[in-house]
Amino acid sequence: MSDGTLGVLIHGAGWVSTQHVAAFKNNPATRVVAINSRTLDGAKKRAAESELDVPCFADYAEALAHPDVDIVSVCTPQHLHCGDVVAAAGAGKHIAIEKPV
């Protein structure tokens, strides 16, 4: 991002994303810039509950193309991690993931 912080895409809007959002909000070097989920309603709900005014997506490729995204925080179910991580790496993004890929 132009202000020196790293922009974070939260990918997945389930419970674990609440913890990822909180961590990135508490890190002065990062800022959540977008949320992606299987459904647009899910992404919007997570944004509202997290008090974030950010773009929401239901298309991962479109979210990865957001110009402010530097890091993808993978918050999806474990069986989706491999494809999610490969797509983020292919888009040239840094990746934060809790579980093995």
Protein topology:
Layout: E1 6-11, H1 15-25, E2 30-36, H2 40-49, E3 56-57, H3 60-64, E4 71-74, H4 81-90, E5 94-96
Parallel strand pairs: 1-2, 1-4, 2-3, 4-5
Q: Can you describe this structure?
A:
The chain starts with 5 loop residues before the first strand and ends in a 5-residue tail after the last strand. The chain is globular. α1 links the parallel β1 and β2 (30-36). The chain is built from four helices and five strands. The chain has 101 residues and is of the alpha/beta class.
What's the overall geometry? Answer: globular
> Nearest-angstrom radius of gyration?
12 Å
List how many beta strands DSSP finds: 5
SS field, number of helical segments: 4
What distance separates the N and C termini?
A: 27 Å
- Placed side by side, the strands forming the largest sheet appear as 3-2-1-4-5
Question: How can the largest sheet be summarized?
Answer: 5 strands, parallel
**Structure classification:** alpha/beta
Instruction: Summarize the amount of helix as a percent range.
Output: 25-40%
Q: How would you name the oligomeric state of the polypeptide chains in this document?
A: single chain
Proportion in β-strands: 15-25%
Mean pLDDT: 95
Q: Which H/E pattern describes the elements? A: EHEHEHEHE
Poorly predicted residue ranges: none
